[in-house]
Design a protein that fits this description.
7 strands, alpha+beta, elongated, single chain, Alpha-D-Glucose-1,6-Bisphosphate, Chain A, domain 4, 7-stranded antiparallel beta sheet, 192 residues, 26% strand
Length: 192
């Protein structure tokens, strides 16, 4: 019986490994998304341009900082949407939603607006980051009630979160979300 299980595991293990090796990164899976992340908007009304851009960005992120003099809009980091959160717009496509379901991902957007001849150049940059925990997070269900490492404590405040803050690793730019935001800006500025 053990020989059969061993032989079966030897036959099936290359199939499982080949399945993981066959997965392509997002950058290779969507080469058509690597286009310009900026657009030209004709016009001369600074205030209307700024407010309409803020309205579109606010549909995706919370605004952290805006500076009209420098033409910069910076957003708060937002934890990536999962498959179970279709109402969040910060994950473009199934792969990004699946990634947000399986791992802690966050995104931040930077929008630059500068005056050009007869209009404005609007550039969108979305940065994606992956959470880097120093160890296992001690946030198991029931951990506050059933502490296995501490035999008896009279401390009434046993509910604790992570002991150290998590860090974030830069993954790169989210070109799919950049394109989605550029398309939304184009729709906003095409209507007068």
């Amino acid at each position: 019986m053990l020989v059969r299980i061993f032989i079966l595991s030897m036959i099936l293990s290359p199939l499982f490994l080949a399945g993981c090796a066959g997965m392509r990164p997002v950058a290779e899976a969507e080469p058509e998304m690597k286009t310009a992340h900026a657009m030209f908007v004709p016009g001369d009304n600074d205030e209307a341009m700024w407010e309409r851009t803020i309205d579109v960005v606010h549909n995706y992120f919370e605004i952290a900082r805006e500076n009209k003099m420098d033409g910069v809009i910076e957003t708060q980091p937002k934890v990536g949407a999962s498959l179970f959160e279709p109402w969040h717009r910060d994950a473009a496509g199934f792969h990004n939603r699946l990634e947000g379901t399986m791992q802690s991902i966050r995104r931040r957007a930077f929008i630059n607006i500068r005056r050009e001849n007869g209009g404005y150049m609007v550039a969108v940059e979305v940065l994606k980051e992956l959470e880097d925990l120093p160890g296992l997070a001690a946030n198991a269900p029931g951990a506050a009630t059933f502490q296995t490492s501490n035999p008896l404590q009279r401390d009434l405040n046993l509910v604790v979160g992570q002991t150290t803050p998590s860090g974030w690793i830069a993954v790169g730019r989210d070109t799919a979300l950049e394109q989605r935001m550029i398309s939304a800006l184009e729709r906003e500025f095409s209507t007068n």
